[in-house]
Amino acid sequence: MFWRAASLCLLLLAGCSAPTQDFNSEVVPIGNFRLGEIVPRAEAELTKGPFSRLASRGEWMDALDLAFNSRFSRFEGGSYYHLGITAAGYVLAKPGIPVIGAPKSILIFTVIVLEDHTGKILTEKPHQITVIEQLSGASFLGSGFTRRREEQLTDLAQQAARATENWLRTQPWFDGPDTIVELPNNLEPSVGESATQ
């Protein structure tokens, strides 16, 4: 059932564009969202799908940390939110039979969102998202032929970050007042602070 659901997403996601293409355009705020912390995890029993190359829990956590920080550090809203990202299952495609049986790389992961100033977890339960590798003329034949394992992993992490942004934009959580207190740059340090400098 786990992988059947992932397979059904392939047709829906077949039109995905480069996961960082929008970095070249103006940043559109997500309400008052500003990234606090990214907490990347991988399930202790991380599921490796059939016909997949191997990637460790640590490799997934590092890739997700880099991809999510790169994407979400661009937003400068007035309230901090923390994101918990957990890799649950994946396929890093091996070479297959071109066109007929060329497997695609897939990542299944969950997201939780925590509001910093209240400490409230906004997601009633972890929200599950499935992403597929960026499709191109090469990956249409199967990225197992054309990409190294590390490239597949990086692409999926970037796709995961972009899919999470798209999902966050549909949520009602970021319309509240700003809660970050900005201190003036010329604020004089206290006596105690001055003494220690």
Overview of this protein structure:
- By secondary structure, the chain is α+β, with helices and mostly antiparallel strands.
- 29% of the residues lie in helices and 23% in strands.
- The chain is built from five helices and four strands.
- It has a four-stranded mixed beta sheet with strand order 1-2-3-4.
- α2 links the parallel β1 and β2.
- α2 crosses α4.
- The N terminus and C terminus are likely disordered.
Low-confidence stretches: 1-16, 191-197
Strand order in the largest sheet: 1-2-3-4
Distance between the termini: 60 Å
The chain-level mean pLDDT equals 82
Task: Determine Rg (CA atoms, Å).
Answer: 20 Å
Q: Helical region count?
A: 5
Shape: elongated
Order of helices and strands: HEHEEEHHH
Percent of residues in beta strands?
15-25%
Helix/strand layout:
Layout lengths: L1 H11 L20 E16 L8 H16 L6 E13 L14 E10 L11 E6 L10 H4 L2 H20 L22 H6 L1
Parallel strand pairs: 1-2
Antiparallel strand pairs: 2-3, 3-4
Short recap of the structure:
By secondary structure, the chain is of the alpha+beta class. About 30% of the residues lie in helices and about 25% in strands. The protein has helices at about 1-10, 55-70, 145, 150-170, 190-195; strands spanning about 35-50, 80-90, 105-115, 125-130.
Key phrases:
disordered N terminus, disordered C terminus, four-stranded mixed sheet, 197 residues, alpha+beta, 5 helices
